[in-house]
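Weekly modeling sync, notes
Attendees: AB, CL, MP (scribe)

Item 1: holo prediction request
CL wants a bound-state model with dioxothiomolybdenum(VI) ion before deciding which constructs to order. AB pointed out that an apo prediction alone won't tell us much about the pocket. Agreed to run with the ligand included and paste results into these notes for async review.

Input as submitted:
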Amino acid sequence: MEMNHPAPRNPLDENRHGQMGRPLDRVDGPKKVTGTAAYAYEVREGAPPAYGFIVEASIARGHVRTIDSSAAEQAPGVLLVLSHRNAPPQAPWGPLKTEDRFARSKPYLSDARVDYYGEPVAFVVAETFEQARYAAQLVRVTYDPEPGAYELQHNWKRPRSRTRTRSPTAPRATSRRASPPRRCRSTCSSRRRCTSTRRWNPTRRWLWWDGDKVTVHCSTQMLDSAQKCVANTFQLPEDDVHVFSRFIGGGFGGKLPIFCDVLLSVMASRQLARPVKTTLTRQQMFHLTTHRTDTVQQLRGGRARRRHAAGDRARVLVAHRPLRQLPEPVVASTRTLYAAPDRMTRMRYVKLDLPESDSCRAPGEAVGMVTLEVAMDELAHKLGMDPVALRLKNEPKEDPEKHIPFSTRQLVPCLEEGARRFGWDRRNPQPGQERDGRWLVGMGMASASRSNKLQPAQCALTFGADGVLVARMSMTDIGTGSYTVFSQIAAEMLGLPVAQVRMELGDSHFPPTAGSGGSFGAASAGSALYDACEKLRHKFALSAGIDPAQAEFEGGHVRGGGKSASLAKLAGPEGMEAHGEIKPGEMDKAYSQQSYGAFFAEVAVDTDSGEVRVRRLLGVFASGRILNEKTARSQLLGGMIWGVGTALHEEAAIDGRHGYFVNHDIAEYHVPVHADIPDVEVVLLPEVDDKANPLKIKGLGELGISGAAGAVANAVYNACGVRVRDFPITLDKLLPGRRPCRPDSGLLLFRQQLPRPSPSPTA
Ligand code: MOS
């Protein structure tokens, strides 16, 4: 099935069995809470494993001069110490043209070069994890270091020396329509730095060789890419690489690639002819997996002559290791969200000698929308307009740059419904006026938007003689609920209880899918499953002598035209099979496809300490059909909480001399905890998008973070009148005399109106 036409009315629209939207508990929930869901590191198969431990470079740039591994080799239990001196040959990195960048060959320990802090320089394998970790400390490495560049903001003023506007892996760098408003009657210009945000999901691998074939159990979002990456690196036929990832502790983009833990384990396992298990410590994760790029963003907007429209002129600087990965497409939402007639967006990429950055939940929107939505707030304030009204006024009739219609777009209903539910009319537009004891209280809002995608996928479906329907795909469930929502789709299509449906995912030898990522997982693999279900229905109807157009499926039977037959009987001992497939088609090009929403936040700022507390959060979203209200809500909730982290907590601090992340643990890299998050409300507006896919759903996994931080930042401004443009907004930046950016003129509320510290009770 190719998505060349709007999807016709189908059994999911009928929802006769009520599976669509039902807040079904996760079908894999019992396994997870009883500890019987085996994550990669816990799989027990094959011979007893050896354990690997990675030795990291302690410089960020230069060469290894000497490695002395003799003490490590003589340590108890050590089986092997690999370094560039004895690592097996691997294909060079690349090739760049490979469409799937996660499938590229990725050699490790292939030479003495060090390109980032923590890059593996040796790999120790021993009988136990403890022995391997102990021996890793005995490996002595000396270096010839070279100076490197680590800090993005130093490149803002004279960006040319290390920047480029083109990157083969990057989206279009510049777009322009008419003349952007260099001077508007009233303008706002905001520049801000968004710091690295990371995700917290240890990656663990466990694998072994059998002859020339290798089996890998790892934690990855995209099995097909992982399989190709191993095959390309070691020049193996793809079929000789078998990757499993049945349960995954979160993905968030950090597991789109596979990393050194897999590839070094593959090397060692082949050499030792036994399974090798490797895990990264929490500290190693910071440098050995990918992180979100730092960005410096500048945006200018204003009221064009005789038009109340926001013009966008965006300039963005993105940290980047050239060629290697995806530079965050920061301006994606700026290009499509509002109707500014005159517009220009430009991205520049700066080469930094940091560990690799790559996708991190909603790459582009997660940080790009913070700037756009804060700039809209600043513009509204300057125009004396309500921020919601400014957005309503700038609602485009079609995609403002592609000049094609939107598939479905309910930004306006989301804004209106959100404003109504939140009590937005109670907001005082004048910052710094609302008090609650020693707290200043304020409200802020932001739009949400995330691009919608469909990726090719296939599905194999078998209805067995036991009456159980089994679907197989190389798809993953990264905690989003894939197992559950797919079970609901199949149950609805065949009229079966969910207990009679089994999803088998997480095996690279199953029919190919693009896995989980970019919020396309449910739509893509789910549509392949839908197609397979359609074909199976057709087969059952024909074999029962029923016109497929009339066939109804219920209680394990197919009925129609006065006939009825049991599916189990029709399937017989051989079972009945069908193969489904989905391909993106013309609908992608003919319609601009995004999911939308609106965030509303209320915060309180302590007038003594500058501490910010989030008091209320509301998100209203329209994202096509909702497959499962519970898993959808969880996804959106998680995104919104991460948005609070982006606004207030998260920063990977870079040591500007040595090029490493200083706060490389969760004690010092702060993420929101329960105490930071109030009750969060998520509202889903009804929608079906027949241009998107046959399920008529749109991606929502990343929608909840796309803009969320902007609502919090805007609420901080409304509370206390201080604009902080350097994220995260920590209390030191709100205190008088410590502000890195000049607050808006006339609104120096903290400085001018901050009350004296409250008298202590004994005074
Ligand atoms: Mo996503 S950041 O594409 O898993």
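Recorded for review: The chain is about 25% helix and 25% strand.
Action items: CL to compare against the apo run; MP to circulate these notes.
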